[in-house]
Amino acid sequence: VDGLAAGNYSINITYNGGDANFTGNSTVANFTITPARTNVTVTENESVIYNNTVVIKYEIANIDTNASIVAFDEDQFNVAVKDAKGNDVTNKAKISVNNGNVTVDGLAAGNYSINITYNGGSANFTGNDTVAHFEIIPARTNVTVTENKSVIYNNTVVIKYEIANIDTNASIVAFDEDQFNVARVGEKCDAA
């Protein structure tokens, strides 16, 4: 018997006797098809630069046949992300599960672990989970200034600056005054 889903079954086998020389008889046989065991393995994306996507490749295999399982949907997975202190940061991240990849965006620089749980998808497969680790490293920055080299006495000196993310060539526009230390040569002064 082929093509049955995991579960308990009964089969009734009847012999009709064949001809007048034999009597018929029937019996019932019971059998169980157990779910195939699965194993989730991952290829870790060990480190990415802040503001880039973490990609963790996963594969689900049928342990009993060593075959890959390729028919899976995002709703067959549960993904949880924790920071280095063990705090759950899943809700702070944008997570997607699709076509053999888990992608993670939106986390600050730091070390993380991600638990990927496959629920089996149906009664035919058991669930399995695995943990992967990744690091988001700080993006490198470059500050450039446009100087106002000549100012008349008692007027304000204006120095324009731009901060760029070297790794992505993007300007950084969200910053606070307390993130700067401005000093004149030879003495320290406050940022204006």
Characteristics:
192 residues; mainly beta; five-stranded antiparallel beta sheet; 16 strands; 0% helix; 48% strand; rod-shaped
Secondary-structure blueprint:
Layout: E1 7-15, E2 25-33, E3 38-43, E4 47-49, E5 54-62, E6 67-68, E7 77-83, E8 94-98, E9 101-105, E10 110-118, E11 128-137, E12 141-146, E13 160-165, E14 170-171, E15 183-184, E16 187-188
Parallel strand pairs: 4-11
Antiparallel strand pairs: 1-2, 3-5, 5-6, 5-9, 7-10, 8-9, 10-11, 12-13, 13-14, 15-16
Characterization of this structure:
This protein has 192 residues and is mainly beta. It is built from no helices and 16 strands. Strands 3, 5, 6, 8 and 9 form a 5-stranded antiparallel β-sheet that branches. It has a 4-stranded mixed β-sheet with strand order 4-11-10-7, with no helix packed on it. A 3-stranded antiparallel β-sheet has the order 12-13-14, with no helix packed on it. A hairpin with a 4-residue loop joins strand 13 (160-165) and strand 14.
